[in-house]
């Protein structure tokens, strides 16, 4: 486990990495093959407001508070939200949350006054499914996305 600081945030971070050998030729050359994310973190200005949003509005399972950070479980990934003393511009990083029914989730979040940048829309038709996305903002203006891979219905 490595400890450090988020660039420009003044906030402590915990970085979890799993390193293992791979048959990837370039990985064999360097000896490094990162293939599993243990934690993702974002920076906010108002931790209390963000905690309510991620826990109550998005329904993430709260794990614990640690100083100016709070932690949630999102599937197999631990999600950290940390307050920064400095105003930081949004980095352009987008977190995509997989949902089974993007239209239903969009409607439920709209009922809770979540700000959407783009409603659900078809992005790509794949051989076995359609990829749908919708983009929303958290209370600090971080862009998040809903993502749904809708299988093709096979007519019988």
Notes on the protein architecture:
It is a single chain. This protein has two domains: 1-88, 2,3-Dihydroxybiphenyl 1,2-Dioxygenase, domain 1 (Roll), CATH 3.10.180; 90-156, Roll (2,3-Dihydroxybiphenyl 1,2-Dioxygenase, domain 1). The N and C termini lie far apart (53 Å). 17% of the residues lie in helices and 46% in strands. A hairpin with a 3-residue loop joins strand 10 (116-125) and strand 11. The relative contact order is 0.16. The protein is of the alpha+beta class and 156 residues long.
Question: Which key terms come to mind for this protein?
Answer:
2,3-Dihydroxybiphenyl 1,2-Dioxygenase, domain 1, four-stranded mixed beta sheet, 156 residues, disordered N terminus, 2 domains, alpha+beta, 17% helix
Short description:
The protein is an alpha+beta fold.
Helix and strand arrangement:
Elements lengths: L1 E4 L6 E4 L1 E3 L5 H6 L3 E4 L1 E6 L2 H11 L3 E6 L2 E6 L2 E7 L11 E4 L3 H10 L4 E10 L3 E9 L5 E9 L5
Parallel strand pairs: 5-8, 9-12
Antiparallel strand pairs: 1-2, 3-4, 6-7, 7-8, 10-11, 11-12
Provide the succession of SSEs: EEEHEEHEEEEHEEE
- Structural class designation: alpha+beta
The CATH topology of the largest domain is given as: 2,3-Dihydroxybiphenyl 1,2-Dioxygenase, domain 1
What level of helicity do the residues show?
A: 10-25%
Mean pLDDT: 83
Going across the biggest sheet, name each strand in turn: 5-8-7-6
Low-confidence stretches: 1-22
Report how far apart the termini are: 53 Å
Whole-number count of domains:
2
How much of the polypeptide forms β-strand, as a percent range? Answer: over 45%
């Amino acid at each position: 486990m490595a400890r450090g600081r988020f660039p420009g945030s003044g906030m402590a971070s915990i970085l979890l990495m799993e390193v293992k050998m791979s048959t990837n030729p370039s990985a064999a050359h360097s000896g490094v093959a990162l293939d599993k994310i243990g934690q993702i973190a974002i920076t906010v200005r108002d931790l209390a407001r963000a905690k309510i949003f991620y826990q109550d509005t998005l329904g993430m399972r709260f794990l614990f508070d640690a100083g100016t950070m709070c932690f949630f479980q999102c599937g197999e990934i631990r999600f950290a939200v940390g307050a920064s003393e400095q105003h930081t511009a949004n980095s352009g990083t987008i977190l995509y949350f997989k949902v089974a029914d993007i239209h239903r989730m969009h409607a439920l979040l709209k009922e809770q006054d979540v700000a959407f940048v783009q409603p659900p829309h078809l992005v790509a038709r794949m051989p076995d499914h359609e990829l749908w996305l919708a983009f929303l903002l958290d209370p600090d203006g971080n862009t998040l996305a809903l993502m749904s891979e809708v299988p093709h219905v096979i007519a019988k």
